[in-house]
Design brief:
By secondary structure, the chain is of the alpha/beta class. Among the domains are: 147 residues, no CATH class; 91 residues, no CATH class. It is built from 13 helices and 7 strands. The strands form 2 sheets. It has a 5-stranded mixed beta sheet with strand order 1-3-2-5-4. The radius of gyration is 28 Å and the shape is rod-shaped. Bound molecules: zinc ion.
Length: 368
């Protein structure tokens, strides 16, 4: 079978071969797009549009070929180096494993490239990459090489996620941020309203493109909805963000559990409750319903689930008899006494501020 080859620069001096393309999306595709629509609350259902609607931004349909087949790109080293310090290092010989100077280059026309118009072109560099999404990579190359008329005005969230991975890896935010801002603005009205795989994608996209507002909103959803450390799918969020997230999530969970402990202690020492009968009734009901949470089960529960558990605590209906022997219901309840402290933790729990971790991100170096 003839290899796919995209000719971004007819006189290009870089031949990039993408091996085993389209491998990165397997984990989250099954999570997002195989689920029933209702599982992605608030997400745009049009996001999972078929590949036939993919941007046809170049000389061929990126995914029309066998997805395991190598894909080649004829590129310009100057454009790549100006747009990306990672490519710059690669092409200056910094990464010997990635760049090969061809001593006796074959003509591009013989490199299975039916699109190359200049048969005398001879690529000076050969670069290999693996697993990237072909469509997103082509999108990035069109932007870097100035083929902006081939760049669509709108992309779906999955493509934006793949694109963000590339931008993060090759560190080319500057040349892509105008397009990313347009795409994000068009997708933003359908931001998720609860934590789900699309909200995780949004965390990564907003991190890569420094959208502090979306990053804070989506991390707040994750802090409240995650049942454990953040499931990043395969999105390379830096560890400084993941550590901060988990620290904030666990400390907020502890604050909620502490609110229950404080309530229990208040009933024990009678600083809460009207009288002995009131404290006994509330304490008994609380102990009976909270033990399963306090003794371990909450570890695997999200903050949102724990809050709902507390809201669901029942107070038995009880009362006292007045002088005429009529029963009067006692109004104190666990909910009225406990939930103000729990709600305080809930409403004070905000998302992460990306700027707090930006310095560490800029200092990171790509792993090769
Ligand atoms: Zn009472």
């Amino acid at each position: 079978m003839q290899k796919q080859c995209f000719d971004l620069d007819p006189l290009g001096d870089v031949l990039l071969t993408l091996r085993c393309p389209n491998q990165l999306d397997l984990s989250w595709r099954s999570l997002i797009f195989a689920k029933p629509r209702k599982s992605a609350e608030g997400s745009d259902e049009s996001e999972s549009r078929p590949k036939s609607n993919a941007p046809t931004a170049s000389v061929d349909e990126p995914n029309a070929h066998d997805e395991t087949e190598d894909v080649q790109f004829l590129l310009s080293s100057r454009h790549l180096s100006l747009a990306s310090p990672v490519f710059g290092t690669m092409l200056s010989g910094g990464w010997k494993e990635s760049t090969v100077l061809i001593e006796r280059p074959r003509k591009i026309a013989r490199l299975e490239n039916s699109y190359t118009t200049n048969s005398e072109s001879q690529p000076r560099h050969q670069i290999t990459a693996t697993e990237w999404n072909t469509e997103a990579f082509l999108l990035l190359m069109n932007i870097i090489h100035g083929h902006h008329r081939k760049v669509p005005q709108k992309v779906d969230l999955e493509t934006l996620a793949h694109f963000s991975i590339l931008v993060d890896y090759y560190k080319c935010q500057e040349i892509t941020e105008v397009f990313a801002r347009i795409w994000i603005e068009k997708l933003a009205p359908s931001l998720p309203r609860s934590h789900c795989p699309p909200s995780m994608i949004w965390i990564f996209v907003s991190w890569v493109f420094s959208n502090a507002s979306i990053f804070e909103k989506m991390t707040e959803l994750a802090l409240k909805g995650s049942q454990g450390p953040l499931e990043t799918l395969c999105l390379p969020l830096p560890s400084v963000v993941l550590d901060a997230f988990e620290e904030k999530r666990t400390s907020s969970l502890q604050k909620m559990m502490h609110a229950v402990d404080e309530f229990r202690n208040g009933l024990l020492n009678s600083s809460i409750g009207c009288d002995l009968a009131c404290t006994c009734m509330l304490l008994g009901a609380l102990i009976k319903q909270s033990d399963r949470l306090i003794h371990g089960q909450h570890v695997q529960r999200s903050i949102k689930q724990v809050k709902l558990d507390f809201q669901g605590f029942e107070t038995p209906a009880w009362g006292s008899l007045d002088s005429r022997g009529r029963a009067t219901r006692h109004d104190c309840s666990i909910a009225s006494q406990l939930m103000p402290a729990v709600d305080k933790v809930w409403y004070n729990l905000k998302g992460l501020k990306s700027d707090d971790y930006r310095v560490q991100k800029e200092n990171e170096v790509p792993k090769v």
